[in-house]
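Deviations from the work plan: none for this task. Representative record:
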Amino acid sequence: SQTIHQWPATLVQPVGSPLSLECTVEGTSNPNLYWYRQAAGRGLQLLFYSVGIGQISSEVPQNLSASRPQDRQFILSSKKLLLSDSGFYLCAWSQGAGGTDEQYFGPGTRLTVT
Amino acid sequence: AQSVAQPEDQVNVAEGNPLTVKCTYSVSGNPYLFWYVQYPNRGLQFLLKYITGDNLVKGSYGFEAEFNKSQTSFHLKKPSALVSDSALYFCAVRDFAFSGGYNKLIFGAGTRLAVHP
């Protein structure tokens, strides 16, 4: 069966510090990968998606970047955090081309920028 | 444009009573529809989906959803609510107009379900 991991679970960082959040998926190959941000416990905002190694697409311009160095690894980064980067960050995966549509989410990382 | 709406911010129901969480959609063509649940400080969990076939779809934890094409709705239901069902529920629809190389989902804003003992 497939599992998705995210770490850290919680993070408190000062404004201006760098950020690195990691997501890994097990039990599948060539997944599509996604980073979402959820503010105030409500709606989801898609930040980045990736259909393959080194292939990253951004949905919204922002202070963040993403990388996919390996097939099942997805990293969310920032060089200098802003207060507005606080939120709940969710990684998700879905089957690749020709697969089913549902996305499966990791446990999330709660980021607080102080 | 493809879209999905959850008209209620919060739904309150007594334990043991039936519950309904509403979802309406707007897509061109036949919709692919999904429901997810999110417990506090957790990721979203997939509950069920409708692609084609029977209008009543059964999912995890005793939930079901009814697809109604004429009303463009996909309401989530459960015959008897439990306190443990209290969570945030998201409806989603596949965006067939998107051509970015993956099956994009559009999520609703979420509905908070509170089940009272």
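The mean pLDDT of chain A is 92.
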